[in-house]
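I am writing to request your help with a piece of structural work I have in hand. I am sending you one protein, given as its amino acid sequence and as whole-number tokens for its backbone shapes. Kindly check, if you would, that the fold set down in the tokens agrees with what the sequence suggests. You will find the record immediately after this paragraph:
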Amino acid sequence: MKTKHGLIVHIDSAGPIEVGSEALNAFLYKTVQEMLFNVIKHANVKEAYLRLRRRHGSLWLRVSDRGRGFDPQELGKTSGVGLLSVRERIELLGGHMKIKSAPGKGNVFIISVPDPGPPKPAVEETEPAGEAALPAAVARKKKRAKRTTGRRMRVLLAAIRNPQ
């Protein structure tokens, strides 16, 4: 963004954040790109701020600037539909977008989308120390649960034609 458009983007992330799917990863990338292009086109500033966090099974993305701002009630009355399109896509994913802005006061866009994170690795089927002391029935039940957790189920559907 700095090289191509002269926009310095300050990024704040609490370490690396793994996203649960490539589709959501691509969605977040395109959303940030759209939001930063809006800063370039409308805010009349040279800096923007991007913050990404994971909280309570959701990813929270905050894009802000100290630019011209606008009246969010006027959104959609102008020719641009970029923010409305972003909001619709976020809502289709079960997320939300909040806009805080006022003329002369800058912009803050807060986006949350559900994401439990990357899948957990399969549980090893060894019995941890300490479980040997459990009653035999409880230990068997736990061991069965471990064997089925995280496994894929394959279903084969077949159609049989009536030879008549």
